[in-house]
Amino acid sequence: MKRLAAFLIATVVALGQDKPWKISLEYIEACSCSLFCPCYFNKYAQDHHTGEHHCNFNNVPRVLAGNYGDVDLKGMKIWLNGDLGADWATKGEADWLVVTFEPKSTKEQRDAMGAILGKIYPVKWKSFQTDTSEITWSISPDGKTAHAKIGNGKAEVKLVRYAGHEPNKPTQIANLKYFAANWNGPFSLYYSDHYYRGFGKSYDLKGTNGFTIKVEASSDGKRVTQKSTD
Predict the structure, then answer these.
(1) Are 187 and 36 in contact (CB under 8 A)?
(2) Is residue 44, in this structure, part of any structural domain at all?
(3) Structure pTM?
(4) Which of 161, 215, 230, 159 is nearest to 192 (CA)?
(5) What local confidence, expressed as pLDDT, does residue 23 receive?
(6) Which percentage of the chain shows pLDDT scores above 70?
(7) CATH number at residue 72
């Protein structure tokens, strides 16, 4: 499996250098850390009072605008499940990743997203697998809740916005970089209930870290212009 993961990463890097690309994403995201995730401020994931550092996550981006060469990516939804493990920042190695694509996505779109995700998350995965399922994705009009679910029942995320002293406004963290993205907006903070059950992995988490965020990345480092969002 390690050899397969290394091959996939090498392929992703090569693809990412072949064609110009850009992407604008909006995430519903949840992990096993407490609110807010210490991974962004330290070189390790949270110590869950066991001496073990790990971060189980459900990351669900939808593409607001983007392309990889002449492959249009707008409207795609992708689901990322995995565990960053203890060495993602110190050694550039993470434990495992499952990427779920919707059935309507083409092979060209999946290959393109694989190349781009390898740029946004530049780590080596000890285990890498793919899956296929419908994905539902929504943020309530008032922004107080968000919900995403995989149609095959393997994963679900429910977010409830953290209520600050002005509960009708989001509580946000700004001026904080999202992994290797060229640009990102502020992190809007939520409590999360989420689970994943698949490929021999299982976690079910209540009241942990969650957020929504807009992220942009491109091969030339420039902001992504978009006419409209769905």
Answers:
(1) yes
(2) yes
(3) 0.86
(4) 159
(5) 97
(6) 83
(7) 2.40.400
Contact 100, 120 (CB under 8 A): no
Number of domains the chain is built from: 1
Using alpha carbons, select from 30, 36, 1, 27 the residue that is nearest to residue 155: 30
**Is 223 domain-assigned?**
no
Residue 230 lies in a domain: no
Domain of 183 in residue numbering reads as 2-218
- CB-based contact 13:118 (threshold 8 Å): yes
**SS3 call for 159:** strand
Contact 120, 217 (CB under 8 A): yes
Q: What is the pLDDT of residues 65-102, one digit of tens each?
A: 999 999 999 999 999 999 988 776 677 788 899 999 99
Tens digit of each residue's pLDDT (9 = 90 or more) over 174-199? 999 999 999 999 999 999 999 999 99
Considering the domain boundaries, does residue 227 fall inside one? no
Question: How far does CA 131 lie from the centroid of its chain?
Answer: 15
